[in-house]
Amino acid sequence: MIDIQEIQETEVRKRGVITAYFRAWRNIFTYHKRTTRYEFFSFLLLNILFSILMQPIFRSCIEVAILVQFASLFVGYALQVRRFHDIGLSGCWVAFFYIGLFIVPILLKILNLIDTQVGEIYLVLMGIYWIFMIIIPFFKGTPGKNIYGLPVSWKE
């Protein structure tokens, strides 16, 4: 039997890492579709490489560094949501992660609970969730159509 998901992943690979990277930037505000493992990890790896190579420029102009990293945060968020959709999971899991990562520590600091048992429980839960967020993108996407649509096609 022909595996449609595997054919589409192969089609994506033929286009190259750079194409996958720029496709992620083009879809910065697209949250309703799906994305492949290849596109997800292409963006992740090239973004890390880009950040390392741009360190001299980022050190001399901190405003550019903040702008680029802030924009790539949005691209990464959208990619994670679409990756979760490809697996058949809700993108809300990614939103919960970002809320837990950025909002909860601020609230714990404001309420002066960061150095208490509540703060320790938060750290344990975030550690478990980090593992979850790192492992999930490696899963193969659901073959064929799922509730988030058809697998990614490069003809779009």
What does this protein look like?
The chain contains 7 helices and no strands. The model has no long low-confidence stretch (mean pLDDT 81). The protein has helices at residues 4-15, 17-26, 37-53, 55-60, 62-87, 92-110, 117-135. The chain has one domain. With 156 residues, the chain is mainly alpha-helical. It starts with a helix and ends in a 21-residue tail after the last helix.
Question: Mind sketching the topology for me?
Answer:
Elements: H1 4-15, H2 17-26, H3 37-53, H4 55-60, H5 62-87, H6 92-110, H7 117-135
Short description:
The chain is mostly helical. The chain has one domain. It is built from 7 helices and no strands.
**In which range does the helix fraction lie?**
55-70%
* Low confidence ranges: none
Structural class: mainly alpha
Q: Which of globular, elongated, flat, extended, rod-shaped describes the shape?
A: flat
Task: Tell me the count of domains.
Answer: 1
Features:
mainly alpha, 156 residues, single chain, 70% helix
